[in-house]
Amino acid sequence: MKELVEVIAKALVDNPDEVVVTEKMNGKDLTIELHVAPSDMGKVIGKQGRIAKAIRTVVKAAALEDNKRVDVDIV
């Protein structure tokens, strides 16, 4: 899941070197934190949060195979 979020985020931003993705496991729950440069924050969130919602939807769909609950936090 970490790699999926990283690939998507790096494709969206102007500074792909500043994209950092971390995973935190808590039982069956997985939290993925996405850190980007402040200037790229708007590109990752999108208008009215549409891009952020799309990223979360893709990751949750990929997590269904593993029977895990995944949350994506954009920090």
Describe the structure.
The protein is of the alpha+beta class and 75 residues long. It has one domain: 2-Layer Sandwich (GMP Synthetase, Chain A, domain 3). The chain has 3 helices and 3 strands, in the order H-E-E-H-H-E. The protein has helices at 2-12, 41-45, 50-63; strands at residues 20-26, 29-35, 69-74. Strands 1-2-3 form a 3-stranded mixed β-sheet. The longest helix has 14 residues, at 50-63.
SSE topology:
Blueprint: H1 2-12, E1 20-26, E2 29-35, H2 41-45, H3 50-63, E3 69-74
Parallel strand pairs: 2-3
Antiparallel strand pairs: 1-2
What can be said about this structure in brief?
With 75 residues, the chain is α+β, with helices and mostly antiparallel strands.
Essential attributes:
alpha+beta; 27% strand
Arrangement of strands in the largest sheet: 1-2-3
The count of domains is: 1
CATH architecture: 2-Layer Sandwich
Structural class, from helix and strand content?
A: alpha+beta
Mean pLDDT, all residues:
93
Q: Could you give me the name of the CATH homologous superfamily?
A: K homology (KH) domain
Largest sheet: 3 strands, mixed
CATH topology: GMP Synthetase, Chain A, domain 3
Rg: 12 Å
The best one-word shape is globular
How far apart lie the N and C ends? Answer: 17 Å
Note poorly predicted spans.
none
What is the CATH first-level class name? Alpha Beta
Count of helix runs: 3
Q: Strand fraction band?
A: 25-35%
Number of strands: 3
Percentage of residues in helical conformation:
40-55%
